[in-house]
Each structure stands twice: as structure tokens, then as C-alpha cells.
TrEMBL record:
Coiled-coil ranges (or none): none
Source species of the chain: Nematostella vectensis (Starlet sea anemone)
UniProt name for this protein: Uncharacterized protein
Range of residues in the leader sequence: 1-18
Keywords of the record: Signal
PANTHER family documented for this protein: MEMBRANE-BOUND LYTIC MUREIN TRANSGLYCOSYLASE F
Length: 144
């Protein structure tokens, strides 16, 4: 009897256990990609920027930074060349640098303007634009 009991215990120990979270499973559906026509129809260009004081920020309610200036110029270019007369408003969405590409893939923004080089993950469905400059000198200024 003891052998049968030990054999049953050993058989039960070799079985794998599976745990399940209570409640319904959450499946996140990726949002549909927006092209320029759908962005124009919504009237809003959502730009994900690096949440860094070096590239963008706000001072006294005023947006500042290199990426903000670049995106403002891009917004003006798109509005100037709009065939249908619809204007776009820029919506700046700050995220940590390591979260920018994931936020883009989740559909939180239409464009990423990191202000610095981002490593594209292998096998990613994202595509980077060509660099407009290379071998740019870096100057660091610090207060003493």
C-alpha cells in the first residue's frame, strides 16, 4: 500500500503545473497605422519625443527644444503644402527614450523624433528615415 502511495506521489510530482490569472484575458489589438491622409483628416499629428531636457521640454507653459523647433517647422511645411486646405496641429507626446519605439508600435503616436540616435530592433516593422547629416560634432557645455 505504501509503495502504491509513493508511486502515485512521484507521478504527481512529475506533472507540470499551470497557473492562470483570474479574469478575462486582455488581448491588445494594435491600432491601425495612420498615413498622411488619415492624419490630415484627424487634424492632428502626434509626435513622440524623447523626454529629455536636451531635446524638448516646457518652460512657463511654452514648449522649447530642438525637436520642438524641428517639428514646428515640419508642421508649417505640411500646412503650407496642403492640397485640401486642412491644417494640422502638432501634439507633442513625451516618452522615455527606451519607450519611444514601443509607444509608436502601440499607436500612441504617428512619428518619433528622438533627438538622438535610436537603435532599431531586429525584425522590427518600423523603418527609419535617412540621416540628413553624418559625423556631426558634439559639444557639451556644463555650468561650473
Amino acid at each position: 500500500m505504501l509503495r502504491v502511495l509513493l508511486t502515485c506521489c512521484l507521478l504527481l510530482l512529475s506533472c507540470t503545473a499551470a497557473a492562470r490569472v483570474a479574469g478575462p484575458l486582455e488581448v491588445e489589438q494594435p491600432k491601425a497605422a495612420r498615413d498622411l491622409a488619415s492624419i490630415r483628416s484627424s487634424g492632428e499629428l502626434r509626435v513622440l519625443v524623447n523626454q529629455s531636457r536636451n531635446s524638448s521640454g516646457e518652460v512657463k507653459g511654452q514648449s522649447i527644444g530642438v525637436e520642438y523647433q524641428r517639428m514646428r517647422a515640419f508642421e508649417q511645411y505640411l500646412n503650407r503644402n496642403a492640397r485640401d486646405g486642412r491644417t494640422l496641429k502638432l501634439k507633442i507626446i513625451p516618452r522615455a527614450k527606451d519607450q519611444l519605439l514601443a509607444a509608436l508600435q502601440r499607436g500612441e503616436g504617428d512619428l518619433v523624433a528622438p533627438g538622438e540616435l535610436l537603435n532599431m530592433p531586429r525584425g522590427s516593422k518600423l523603418s527609419a528615415s535617412a540621416a540628413i547629416r553624418s559625423n556631426v560634432p558634439l559639444i557639451i557645455v556644463a555650468k561650473q
